[in-house]
Amino acid sequence: MDELRHLWNTETVWLNTAQYGIPPATVRAALDAHLDSWAAATADPAHWWRGTGLARERLGSLLGVPAGDIALGAATSQMLGTVAASLPRTATVLVPEGEFASVLFPFLERGVRVRTAPLERLADAVGSGCDAVAFSVVHAATGAVAPVGDIVAAARGCGALVVGDATQAAGWLPLAATGFDVLVGTTYKWLMTPRGLAYAYVAPALGERMGSPGAGPAASADPGALFADRFVPAPGARRFDTSPNWMAHAAAVASLDVLLGVGVERVYAHDTGLADRFRARLGLGPGGSAIASVEVPGAHGLLARAGVVSTVRGGRTRVAFHLYNTVEDADRAAAALVG
């Protein structure tokens, strides 16, 4: 990724993308332009709306689906709340043990029955009486990649919905959203935008059966009909949109142009290659993930003293590699832990 190195100029070795990503220079330029026009009172909201459409198109390209099947919101929990609200209270939802709260809480709040199973045995736990299975494609704490194919096959065998959270996956892990009924995510990590933009792929057949409990003008067939006396849903997944975060949308267009220009397959090879290099220096086998979680006493502090930023999750130190990281970064982090 040497040809992209000029897009970042960090003051630390940032191995913390699983918490938030670092924007390329093109994103900063897009945000500066947005702020300048806003502050000068010269901005045209119609231009910002066009940015929303472009962000939807880029996200569709990333996930391999038509733009019309992408809904835009603010947070994964909000998007999943719409899914949970569509389930009857008698439904049973299967989730992995230790699942991230944004996936779990919307279903708990809905009051449905929630069953759990270890991630590696989740497919075996799908069965008769299961209405939906919901899981993170990549676990936020451990970096474990879910056995998506097995889970989807088991769910299809019993008619259960497949609901995935791609927050820690999209941007480095090649994904085909059409394998899911719903695939949600937020963009401020691997997609390198500010906070405040989330997305959801909603399979058309499912979307037709779901309500829009958070409906506002952005979800209507005519977003300009601000004083309409009845709600006419927009076609496709846009019926689940919330009021647009124009600034985050502008950033997403710029960041996704970088990712799509590189190609997710190349990003995958780069990110997992660095993570596995780091793991190998610690005597660990390949993880096949951009995220590595290690149990080394005092690792977080040792890394910090070496100028490497990491995070502690579940009592283990987590590092995460992305486009702006290098072989030198991986070696520096490993040397801080093993010498």
| Count of alpha and pi helical runs | 11
Radius of gyration over C-alpha positions, nearest whole angstrom? 20 Å
What is the strand tally?
12
Write down the overall geometry: globular
Q: Given the helix and strand composition, which structural class is it?
A: alpha/beta
CATH topology of the largest domain: Aspartate Aminotransferase, domain 2
Mean pLDDT rating: 96
- Element-by-element helix/strand order: EHHEHEHEHEHEEEHHHEHEEEH
Can you tell me the CATH class of the largest domain?
Alpha Beta
Low-confidence stretches: none
Sheet with most strands = 7 strands, mixed
The N- to C-terminal Cα distance equals 27 Å
Q: How are strands sequenced across the largest beta sheet?
A: 2-8-7-6-5-3-4
> Which CATH architecture of the largest domain would you pick?
3-Layer(aba) Sandwich
Strand content: 5-15%
> How many structural domains can be distinguished in the coordinates?
2
Helical fraction equals 25-40%
CATH-wise, what's the superfamily of the largest domain? Answer: Type I PLP-dependent aspartate aminotransferase-like (Major domain)
